[in-house]
Design goal:
Blueprint lengths: L2 H28 L7 H20 L4 H12 L1 E2 L21 H13 L4 H11 L3 E2 L4
């Protein structure tokens, strides 16, 4: 085997070592080098949902926010990918998912619709599933 045939595999091996080093470094730096417990992950997800809801409902009155919370706690996310997550707790962006439904509800609250009217509109426009625990 001549020198040129030995160089290509060595270069390839060197590139692979660099790529693996970068991947490992990024993985460790992304989670701080520590494992995140399921409880910590759940708390972080709930904080993200709360922030999303705050942005969605920021222009609502206190009474409208109460209605928003009541409506979203009474249904399951409609996207089919959230494992029957309560609409209030979900923030998925899939079609007919939580973000779309939250915006739908806020839109009609801003139009002055009542809770019963919004419930009717949700059933007319989406195949909503009731939250069995609410």
């Amino acid at each position: 085997m001549d020198k040129s045939n030995k160089v290509v595999p060595l270069v390839f091996l060197g590139v692979m070592v660099i790529v693996l080093t970068v991947v490992i470094t990024l993985t460790v730096s992304n989670n701080g080098g520590t494992e995140v417990s399921p409880q910590e992950e759940q708390v972080a997800q709930q904080e993200q949902v709360t922030q999303q809801q705050d942005q969605t409902t920021m222009n609502l009155t206190q009474e409208q926010r109460r209605i928003f919370e009541d409506i979203t706690k009474s249904y399951i996310c409609n996207c089919g990918n959230c494992e029957d997550m309560v609409l209030y707790e979900c923030d998925c962006s899939t079609p007919q998912g939580a973000q779309e439904l939250h915006e739908f509800i806020v839109h009609y609250l801003n139009e002055g619709k009542s809770q019963a009217e919004i419930d009717d509109l949700l059933h007319q426009n989406y195949d909503m599933k009731a939250n069995p625990n609410y």
